[in-house]
Request: fold
Amino acid sequence: MVRLKEKYKNEVIPKMKEIFGYKNDLAVPKIEKVVLNVGAGKGVSNPSFFEEAAANLAKITGQQPVKTFAKKSIAGFKIRKGMPVGLKVTLRGDRMYEFLDKLINVTLARIRDFRGLDPKGFDGKGNYSIGIAEHIAFPEIQFESAEKIHGLQVNITTTAKDDKEGYMLLKLLGFPFKEEKNA
Reply:
C-alpha cells in the first residue's frame, strides 16, 4: 500500500473524527484528484515547447499529458480559437498518493527559498492550489538536460466542505504550511 494512503487511513481519519466530530470514516474529507497544469505562453511562438513540456510532465507524473485548447480567440495574446494553450494531467488513486508523497517530502524541499506553503491557496470549498515556478524542482528532471524551464500548477481537489476542513486534512497529511503570525 502507498505510504501516504496508509497515513490517511491510520492517522488522519481518527484525528479528523476527533477534531470535527464525524460519526463514521466515510464522512471524513479525502483527496479526490490532483491536476497538474502547464500553461504554454511560450508555446504560442515556439511549438517545440509543447513536446518538451509534455515529456517533462510525463516524467513527473508517470502519465501522458493532454493538450488543452483555447475556447475563444484573444488578439492581445495572439491566440486563436482551437490553438493549443497548455497541458494537463489528472492523477487519481495510488498514483495520486505517490505523487503527493513525493511532492511533500522531496519536491517542496528542493524549491529555492521555500518557507512553507501559503494557507491562502484554498478556493473556499476546501480545494488547494500550488504554483511551482520551476519544473526542475522535481527529482525526475535532470537540471543539466532541461533546456527550457517552465512552471506548473498543482491543484488538489478534496471532498472537504470548506477551507478549514481542507486545511486540516492537508496539514495532517504532512503539507508544510506557513504558520500564520498573530499580531
Summary: The chain is about 35% helix and 20% strand. Residues 3-173 form a domain with the 50s Ribosomal Protein L5; Chain: A, fold (CATH 3.30.1440.10).
